[in-house]
Amino acid sequence: MSLLINLFLLGFLLIIAIAVMRIHNLMAMAMLFGLYSLLVSGLFVVLDAPDVAFTEAAVGTGISTVLMLVTLASLRNSHEARYPGRLKKGPLLLSLLMGAMLVYGTHDIARLGEPSAPVHQQVGKHYVEKGQQETGIPNLVTAVLASYRGFDTLGEVTVVLTAGLAVLMLLTRPRKPHIKMEARNDP
Amino acid sequence: MDYAIGHLNYWLIICVMMVGLYTLMSRGNLIKKVAGLNIFQTSVILFYVSLGKLQGGTAPIVSPEFVLYANPLPQVLMLTAIVVGVATTALGFALIVRIKEAYGSMDESEINRMDGTGT
Lengths: 187, 119
Fold this sequence. Notes:
The structure holds two protein chains of two kinds. By secondary structure, chain A is mainly α. Chain A has seven helices and no strands. The termini of chain A are far apart. Chain B has a single domain (2-115), classed as Helix Hairpins, CATH 1.10.287.3510. Chain B is 73% helix and 0% strand. The longest helix of chain B has 32 residues, at 72-103. Classes of the chains: A mainly alpha, B mainly alpha. Chain B: Keywords: Cell membrane, Membrane, Transmembrane, Transmembrane helix.
């Protein structure tokens, strides 16, 4: 049953991804993108990952969509230029080739939810069996995030701080260089 | 048949991933490129989380009523990846705003024409 819901949601996800690719109005694209993130967080619930679903719903659906809308509002240009009849063959071929190779690669992955898969045998098994005993936290995701792999979270905070500083430096520069429009006529 | 049902989840995720990659490479509009990159990234995250799923298991919160739990490790790693992904997306949008201020355009081919490189 849960597999059926999973595949159904994934089908919807594929349709929305194609819609994001094809739509020319960028405001509508931002809305579709929010819907895409919401569907992904629904999929995380089906895959037994409520913590990831919370994060995706708050950060992916909320902040990402708001950032996209704010950018579009400050650019005052919400339409993509159209190039009719131009299907780019190189990227299409590359995507199809890479997709085929990845599908070939899944041949060695165990079926979805297979208990004998290597993922469930190694360190994950230890976390599930001893996690609460060793850290005293019933939520194993929190236990691993804050206790076993605390340094990962420290690294994450460093990346977020760096990105925030870079955004501030980019947007609050007092003297902003402009490219002259005459350069357009150059070959 | 059993093989196909067990792997269909991965194949669909790979399809979404490739739609994201194609959007990233083929569209000239910079915002569209960032959206494509985000779709690619989200599907990779989805792939990892689906690897941690366990048949008959439940969410990894210990309770005396349950014995089988999904693997918490991929979930923790992807939790970090989501937050880092949004930080890099914000940086990408800030760069687009600056490019638009400098060039007056956010279309890749127009920007290349002003720079005199490529078409």
